Amino acid sequence: MAETKTTALIERPIVGVQRIQEMAGPEITTPQAYAERIRALQGQAHILSPFAAVGAIAPSHVINTMVVVIDPSVDAKSGRGADVYHQPSIHKSKKIGTENGKAIYEPLEVSLNKIGLQKILAASGASIYPPTREFRERYWWIVTHEADLLTFDGRYVRLPPGTASVDLRDGSPDCGEWTPEAWAEAVRIAEEQKKKTPPDDQWKIKPNVGGWTKERVLQARKFGLELAETKSLNRLARNLGIKQVYTIEELQKPFIVFRAAYIPDVTDPDVRRQLTAASLGARYALYPGSEAQRVSLHDGSPISHAMGDPTQLIESEVVTPEPAERMETAAPPTEAKELSFDEPAEKAEPTAPVDLYHVTRVLQDGDGASAKYYVETKEGITLYTPDLAMAKICAAAKKDGLQREIPTERVMVGGNPYRQIIEVVAVGGVKL
């Protein structure tokens, strides 16, 4: 039986402020200076850029050298760190001793976690869109990240999307083809082996299916969506040249990210007016009711502060605010069939409503573990859940005709938008 692996604490490298400033250097304004900066930093840092060479730099644009320091330290037990993570099944480690009969391993390799990836993507100036999440079946998450990036020639380009799938359904290769039946058999075999093993060595016999235990499967499913989002970000960041695995020694060096930036000519009066208007527009968006911040821009003609004509009429119009955009969802699939359950509705106590819905129909699409459930509401919103128990609760809500507080989140199912049910709360605060 293989020895139990743990991780040792790896200390963070120290990169002085002065050294970071030296690496960053001045703004780059020519292709020649860009090539020279790369040559000067070669071997001192991990150089990341989606552009291998620069033919020209757009007018009023410069290239900034961003320095990102990654913390490679990981927790002694969990293998988690601030910027990285260590997983014994995919990362190399070396044995450094034993403690209480268990082997202690020191990590040699790690991967950047979500925080580390976001640091580098932020340094690149990438504008990352909110991720698209698709839930095809329970315990199967598909996440896609997309981002725009300002190029050195002044154009915005869409980076190739980063799409990742985490499939932790029973029997999936992602969890070692673990199933409840296979786990029960592994437990039975382990118990038989323990009967033939001296008591002092029985602790070494631990059941697993493809390297996975029941506890590991449950823990992975708990963070399945988070893992899919990290993998998706990782694949998006690969466009900048980020590797999937780094050694601890490699991460003693910082990352260098070359970032394009627009530098307007503030000596131009027209540019100054445009910048002022843009700044004020941003303030209005943040503080629409702030009259003190509202300023009139004019064309430079003289301004008079004399009393005006009291009989003068000022042309104006009444502006009616547009109604808020109504939330829309797709209709259930045409092949879905209405469900009917006999369970009585649970009595609830009154509470303060938040997201209230009247359930009118509950439909099922597919059979068995892959079934999907769609809940039509009087409010015109179609809710979605892959959970049969949740569908039964909604069916009870249809039966009694009472409102339910149903918090949701937007998801894509089969390419169509729905609101996935997070929980169902009776109008009274009782969680169903």
Give a short overview.
This protein has helices at about 15-25, 30-40, 115-125, 180-195, 215-220, 225-235, 270-285, 390-400; strands spanning about 45-50, 60-70, 85, 95-100, 100-105, 110, 125-130, 130-135, 140-145, 145-150, 155-160, 160-165, 245, 255-260, 335-340, 355, 360-365, 370-375, 380-385, 405, 410-415, 415-420, 425. The chain is an alpha+beta fold. Among the domains are: about 15-160 and about 225-260, no CATH class; about 335-425, OB fold (Dihydrolipoamide Acetyltransferase, E2P), CATH 2.40.50.
Key terms:
24% strand, OB fold (Dihydrolipoamide Acetyltransferase, E2P), 3-stranded mixed beta sheet, 23 strands, alpha+beta
**Strand-residue proportion:** 15-25%
Distance between the termini: 45 Å
What global shape is seen?
flat
**Total helical segments:** 8
Category by helix and strand content:
alpha+beta
Largest sheet geometry: 6 strands, mixed
Strands of the largest sheet, in order across it? 15-17-18-19-22-21
Q: List segments where confidence is low: pLDDT < 50 over at least 5 consecutive residues.
A: 1-14, 289-325, 345-353
- Oligomerization state of this entry? single chain
Rg measurement, Å:
30 Å
Number of DSSP-assigned strands: 23
Overall pLDDT level: 78
Helicity, in percent?
Answer: 10-25%
